[in-house]
Design a protein that fits this description.
Elements lengths: L1 H13 L7 H17 L17 H11 L1 H21 L5 E8 L3 E12 L4 H67 L5 H23 L1 H11 L27 H8 L1 H21 L6 E8 L6 E8 L5 H71 L4 H36 L23
Antiparallel strand pairs: 1-2, 2-3, 3-4
Amino acid sequence: MLTATTIVAMVWVTGCVGQRSDGEKHAQQVLAITEEHYRPANSRPQLPKLATDVPLHNFLLFAVFNQPRVEVAYFDWVASVRRITLERSLPDPQLTFQSDIADMVTTLMPGLMIDLPGPGKLKWAANVASAESEARYFAFESAILQIAFELKKAYYNLYFLNARVTVNRDTLQLVEQIERLARAQNEVGKVTLQDVLRAEIERKRITTEITNLEDSRNPLLAQFKAALGLKDEDSTPPVPQKFESTPLDLTSDQLFKTALARNPRLKAMEAEVRRADATIRLAYKARVPDFSAGVEVDVKTSPILATPQLGVTLPIWRDKIAAQIGEAQAGKQASEARLSSEQIALAVEFAEKSFMFREATRNFELITERLLPKARQSLDVAQSGYVSGRVDFLSLLDAQRTLLGFQLSEIDARVQREVALAELSLLILGTPLDGAPMLPPDANFEKERKP
């Protein structure tokens, strides 16, 4: 029985820790760095303060650390890192026991068996898992940037909603002034009651528009609240009062090259290609047999009799192996095609958002510098002409509506410009957020895989 105890002790001592692969070491290092910031001591870090007078950056970090969608992506990545250890580890040894019993116990043979995968199989299985963990990491980065974009978009819409309400209230005061002017003109017989009624209709229309805008604040606040990761029962968060644009130099010739090098969606697909390549190499290893080895010891004999055992698999099903290799090769071709497709889509998206930004900027400058001053001047002339009887009421109303349209178009152009900037910076360029648990842009996540 002493020999069986010794065998169990050997299994316990030698089977505790395996040899880590290079990809596993690197993935665990990245995880340790990220975990220190994102979930120190496996708990959420202290969230930034939210108030109307704090910068937007506080809200962005709050969303990153509090949003469940980011947390889901994070723990999916953590699970994929842990899976590397599973894939590179040897199967558990088996403690066997055999005995011959007639009228009494004639043999008592405890033993130990272990399966040994063929050379290179565990290495490439670990490389497959390592590449998959890289793809999961970049999915985590994408979740962070997506949440940051959604928060910024909701913030811009809320900020410019206030501007729309202000413009409409100013316009309402103007229409009330025009209505008083029409009543005065009607009282002296210069115009008919129809002008007064038209002014009332315009006043009620704008009043209803203001009510609709005020009511639209609730869904926008819900979007802002959801981006912060707050639940329905949580109180409505404050909104930053100070406007903050997204800093981005769109004149740089290197901008698209930066997007190709940094975009987390592309980085994830590049990792998928590496995963597919490792899967092919692992499929070729199916030609290599696996082994099993063990020993049984008959403790009833004297001297003690040891019986070694050795087994080997016979990979004889060539069509099965060929199908496995073909599947892996097709998977790599599909991954490469998806990567090429995403690169093309990124180029199109970059061109579209850059155009949207330039178009919105041109429209904003045109409206601000040329159209709005002329519209205000036209309204002043129309008001003077209406008093003197040289301009009819419809022309006056048209001048007022033109001014309102240009004012709202100016706000829309600013919204489009800011949303395009945020989307370019976060979703296309993948610009990291200061303080967010992301690798710096120049960090090299990829480790060279030895063939």
